[in-house]
Amino acid sequence: QVQLVESGGGLVQAGGSLRLSCAASGRTFSSYDMGWFRQAPGEEREFVASITWNGVITNYADSVKGRFTISRDNAQNTVYLQMNSLKAEDTAVYYCAAKRRGTLAYNYWGQGTQVTVSS
User: What is the pLDDT of residue 28?
Assistant: First the structure.
């Protein structure tokens, strides 16, 4: 099990940038694949980006591809989401999630951090 604490959300104008951070507890961070999800009001949670335990493989939702970058620093037990060229439709609560290597489900979730993009 792992605990996730997110930071970096806030209010930004369209076209601006934010970097979200997710700090994980424990000494086995490298055992987990990590992902970012988001949920807008009245909508279901959607996948944003993921990164494997060793950072070799990344995946992105089509809506953010080319604008967002996921990365991780296993030495600091932290995963990041760099968000550039933000759009109003990126407004949502962003969640960090973790799953153990060799599993399919994200079983551990952060509390979420609000990102608001003004047009």
Answer: 79
